């Protein structure tokens, strides 16, 4: 039996019978992570790494799509511990390797160019002036306290092998910065998909994938509209959340 800490609970991931340990005291996973887990390209085998892994939700989701070994890197000790226990909770301890570490230096431990694919759901917001969120876990999840966008993309570029894929979810307003930095670090953008809350509204998120040393060419996929005219999740999201093995692949 996997132990739970005070305030922790076990939630259902609603797909493949996966469970996840969460707590109201730390940032819980969001739709962003779920979409990233379905959007990214994965090898059938090999090595995959998820940066800013939090409690390990993305590696859990990736484990349903590939037989590859999957690493997760999280700088916060409490979340890294939850990620380790989430792997054990789902009997994935042999394939999911959760590490407490700093993405800016983790290549020193795991090596340059050792991964077929990298995923990352980084903090979205610059560090604010003045008072910050009093909860350190929420603050680190939302704001670029431990790493900024360039740190993230530089880390991805060091870890992925030539021809490997790097997938990210971020705010759509940061797209120009993302593309500019990806190209600076030889990650050529290849696929992009905008996520809109409702039809007729501007994009709130963007899913983007690049290839290390790839040739210039990008595919813009159809937009994902989260809510339909009845203010319910669209068919695609229902398939992702409730469809199990029938869930949609974003390719």
From TrEMBL:
Residue ranges occupied by any Methyltransferase small domain in the UniProt entry: 34-138
Protein's name according to its UniProt entry: tRNA1(Val) (Adenine(37)-N6)-methyltransferase
InterPro entries cross-referenced by the UniProt entry: SAM-dependent_MTases_sf (IPR029063), Small_mtfrase_dom (IPR007848), tRNA_Adenine-N(6)_MTase (IPR050210)
Pfam family, one: MTS
PANTHER family: TRNA1(VAL) (ADENINE(37)-N6)-METHYLTRANSFERASE
Top-rank taxon, per record: Bacteria
């Amino acid at each position: 039996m996997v132990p739970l800490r005070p305030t922790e609970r076990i939630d259902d991931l609603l797909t493949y019978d996966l469970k996840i340990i969460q707590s109201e005291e730390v940032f819980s996973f969001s739709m962003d992570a779920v979409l990233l887990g379905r959007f990214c390209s994965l090898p059938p085998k090999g090595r995959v790494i998820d940066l800013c892994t939090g409690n390990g939700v993305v590696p859990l989701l990736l484990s349903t799509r590939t037989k590859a070994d999957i690493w997760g890197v999280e700088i916060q000790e409490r979340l890294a511990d939850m990620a380790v226990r989430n792997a054990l909770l789902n009997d994935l301890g042999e394939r999911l390797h959760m590490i407490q570490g700093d993405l800016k230096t983790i290549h020193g431990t795991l090596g340059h160019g050792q991964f077929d694919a990298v995923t990352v759901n980084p903090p979205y917001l610059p560090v604010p002036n003045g008072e910050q969120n009093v909860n350190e876990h929420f603050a680190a999840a939302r704001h670029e306290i431990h790493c900024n966008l360039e740190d993230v993309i530089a880390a991805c570029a060091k870890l992925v092998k030539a021809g490997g894929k790097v997938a990210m979810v971020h705010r759509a307003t940061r797209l120009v910065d993302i593309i500019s930095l990806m190209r600076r670090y030889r990650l050529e953008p290849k696929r992009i998909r905008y996520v809109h809350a409702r039809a007729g509204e501007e994009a709130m998120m963007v899913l983007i994938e690049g290839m290390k040393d790839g040739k210039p060419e990008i595919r813009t996929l159809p937009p994902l509209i989260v809510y339909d005219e009845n203010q319910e999740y669209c068919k695609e999201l229902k398939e992702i959340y409730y469809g199990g093995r029938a869930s949609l692949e974003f390719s």
